[in-house]
Every structure is written in structure tokens, then in C-alpha cells.
Amino acid sequence: MLSWVNGRPQDAVPVTDRGLSYGDGLFETILVASGQALGWALHMDRLARGCSALGLPPPPIDGLNADRAGLCAIGPDPAVLKIILTVGGTARGYARPDPFAWRRIVSLMPAPAWLRDDYESGIRVRWCRQLWFSDPDLAGIKHLNRLPQVRARAEWTDAGIAEGLMRDPEGRVIGGTMSNLFVIKDAVLATPNLTQCGIAGTMRARIMAIAHRLGWTVEETALSVMDCYRADELFVCNAVRGIRPIRQLESRMFRPGPVTRALQREFGFPWPIPEDAR
Amino acid sequence: MLSWVNGRPQDAVPVTDRGLSYGDGLFETILVASGQALGWALHMDRLARGCSALGLPPPPIDGLNADRAGLCAIGPDPAVLKIILTVGGTARGYARPDPFAWRRIVSLMPAPAWLRDDYESGIRVRWCRQLWFSDPDLAGIKHLNRLPQVRARAEWTDAGIAEGLMRDPEGRVIGGTMSNLFVIKDAVLATPNLTQCGIAGTMRARIMAIAHRLGWTVEETALSVMDCYRADELFVCNAVRGIRPIRQLESRMFRPGPVTRALQREFGFPWPIPEDAR
């Protein structure tokens, strides 16, 4: 793994870093393919929203652009570019340093192995017991306080389970631990609204834009467990793994359907959809 | 600042540390005076509860004992010993490393300047707008996901304000950003119950034990803003700064009263209470 801190090769950060001490910062995980950081502008937009939500100055976009260009010129391809932006360091105490200086921690590592079957036949998912508690102040943004997702992911070790779905305390489905969820019923797409909790994924945004362009109805709404079981099609998505149909949710079986196939085709990454579905 | 990582002098951690990536870990902040780490057993107990709540193995007590002894032998006194315990490192992904290995990050730094007036006359505090959202799974423990407290602390820059009080979404008072709160009315002590959110401080536990020993009534209960305004005495406490009376909450003035003075006297640290109150 290649790693730069504030633009210089470095694989460690001071123990006083506030990202470590308090999770005082944000992150982005970006797919790099053929030298391109896919959805870069959307990632930078979310980072800017996150900075604003945390009461921080705008992100150091010029530095991040330079990091991206520098690392992509020397690193593997395809790859995952991970950005962590922290508030720098103080010895102790919740008060932020004054004057303020961003710490940019940018790493590039080989892309994960994409399994063709995950895209063609779909994945198995389960419900998590861990709830996604509400915090409207932080809803949607990708900050460094991720214990609920870590705890949810720790609920299973079966390698055959690709993702777990999380609900809020009122039983509304919020999404996967590391992905957003889409539910298709009668040719209408629905995805959980994320005004109270959850992370608003860049792939989610791209899929909504594609669906609008194709003239489909897309709703951001409250979704129940039963909405999932009654769906015609279900899929999860994120920036690194793209669109993966759900073929099994607990004991309920699904088949990847025409809406999922059309979106996979439009998106075209990370795996060419099967010929027979074109 | 002296810093050891896994028992060796080191002032940095790998960028892959899961404390940095996700806040996947816990911390303790302990006062060291005359070579003693005050309340060590209570801090270790909370750490053990935190590990259990996060679904992690018991804390590496032997290693932490060695770190404490080693650092206290060479460091300043009085001092603050800060322990961060993280789940180690993985390049990416919420799944924890298997096999598992703790990373112990232990630092020793000079104690803060204690201001005599804070203990004698008391401090000024304010209400924070930032809410302490509920998460019963994580309530009470001192994990590394502390963005709500960071955001609350960022609400003021006036150096004359020593602490901010936080409420939950139902308006119940939870405590200070970095301290626990006690409300005294008609010789009864009350402190917020922390079953839904908040951090259960070691000083809070010690004060409750002292109060019980003195035969006083202590309630862990839901407290409203009005309960605070109507109190006879108010104080905040934490392990590093001890017991500080509140002399002003917004525009309401208080005088340190007999219960606060008696507790300060019993506790005897970090500042001898004024002679005239003995």
C-alpha cells in the first residue's frame, strides 16, 4: 500500500491525531481504473458537505488533487484510493487546534478481487441486529465515527454473506454496513432517505441520476423490512464494488431483474454484465 | 509528551490503524499524582466494560500496568496518562482483523494548570445546542467515536466558559462535554442516568461511593434543564480536574454549597478546598 501524509510518502501519523483520538475527520474511498478516479467530483462534493456539517473549513481540494495525481501515476491500477482528512493534532481535549491545519492521509492499494458471480447471480445478505441510531447532524456524511457499522459487520463471519442490512430504532431500513440499498417494485426504484442517519453514497447518487435520465421513478423514502421482502428486485451498491444484485435475503430468494441489469449495463463497472442480459 | 506504542517508545501509529479509520477502540484519561495513577482500578473496569460492549476481548491489563509503571517512572508528576486501545490495523473494510491483536497507545503529559478559583468560586458553563444522541449499545463507555462532543466543544471560544452542558433529543440533561454533572437539591444528590448515552465517569463513580458512605441519598435519574436552574448546588467532575462547582449557568448564578464542599474535602484533589469552607 502506498501512503502519503500531507503530500509526502509516510505510513504513520502522530499519536496525537484527532482522527485517532476522537474520529474528528472524514473519509472517502474511491475506485481508480484506467488512471481515472471514478466519481471524483461527487467524492469531493461529499467531502465538502462533510466539512460543513462538522463545522470545518472547506477541504484542501488542491492538495487532494495533487495526491491523487501523484499516487495514481506510480500505483497499481485498478486500485482503491482512500482519503482520510483529519483535524490534525492536539495532545488532549475536545477543543480543536487553533490555528487550524488539515491533515491529509491518502493511500492507494490494489482493488479488491471482484467476483463475477456477485454481479451475475447476486450476493447473499442478512439483517444486522445492530441498529443505525439517528444523528441528523451527521446524517449522510462519511465521518470517522463508524462504530455502529464495525459492530454490525462483526455479527457474521460466514464468508458466503457479502453484506448486512441495518435498520434504525424505528425499524426503517437504512442500508448495508458498507453500501446503499435500492428496492425495485412495479418498476419504481426506492432507496432509504438518509435525513436521520446513514451515508449518502456517491454510487447511490450516480444511480439516481442515471435512473432519472432513463425516465424512471426514483423515491427517497422510508422502507420497511416487508418492503424488502416484497420487492421484485433488490441491489446494493458502493463506489468500489459497483452494483451487486441481492439473490438471497435471509431465506428469501430473488433473481436479478431488468432494472438492475439495465443499471449495471449503464454503469458498466466493475464487471461487464452477462451477455445474456444485454 | 512521552508516548509508547505496544510498550515501546513511539510517537506515531500506522495510517491503517482502525482507531483512526473508524474509531474502533476505547480510551482513558487518568490523573497521576505522587507517582500514583488515581482510580486506576476504576479506569481498568470501565475499559473492560467498553471492550465487552464493543464485542472485543478483555483489555491487555498486564501490558497497560507495565506501560503505566514505566512511563510514571520517567515522566512528569503530576501528569495525565492517556490510554488509547485500538483494534490494530487493516488496510480497509469494517471487518476486524483475524487474528486479533490490541494496539496500546499510552502517553504521559504534564497535568493541566489547575486554577484555584475554579475550585473555590466555581466555573461558568453554558448549554450546548449539539445534542447527545442515544445509542444504548455504546452508552456509558469511553469509545473513540466522539464527534458530538467535539462539535459541542466547538460552539464556544470564550475562554471564560469552562464547560458546556449537553442534552439528549428529549431534552434530558446528560452532562458536560468532558465531565459528569451533579445536581444537589434539598440535600439530595442527583446525576443523569446514562443508559441511553453519555460517558460514565470514574470520578462520578467515586463521588457516588463517597456520598453513599456519608449516608447521603444519590439518584441516577432523568434531569431537566429546570432541575438545573432550581438546584441548590451544581458541580461538574472528571478524573483530571476533580470537582468544580458551577457558579454560573448562562445567566443564573450559584454559590458553591455545603455538599459540594464536603465532597471536595473528601476527595482532596486536585486543589485543597478553601480554608473558610472546612
Question: Can you walk me through this structure?
Answer:
The structure is a homodimer of 278-residue chains. The first copy, chain A, has 278 residues and is α+β, with helices and mostly antiparallel strands. Chain A folds into two domains: 2-110, D-amino Acid Aminotransferase, Chain A, domain 1 (2-Layer Sandwich), CATH 3.30.470; 116-272, D-amino Acid Aminotransferase, Chain A, domain 2. Chain A contains eight helices and 16 strands. In chain A, the strands form two sheets. In chain A, strands 8, 9, 10, 11, 12, 13, 14, 15 and 16 form a nine-stranded mixed β-sheet that branches. A six-stranded antiparallel β-sheet of chain A has the order 2-1-7-6-4-5. Strand 3 of chain A pairs antiparallel with strand 3 of chain B.
* SSE ordering of chain A: EEEHEEHHEEHEHEEEEHEHEEEH
What general form of chain A does the structure show?
Answer: globular
Mean pLDDT across the residues of chain A is 95
The N- to C-terminal Cα distance of chain A equals 37 Å
Number of separate strands of chain A: 16
Question: What number of structural domains do the residues of chain A give?
Answer: 2
- CATH architecture level-2 label of the largest domain in chain A: Alpha-Beta Barrel
Low-confidence stretches of chain A: 274-278
Q: Report the structural category of chain A.
A: alpha+beta
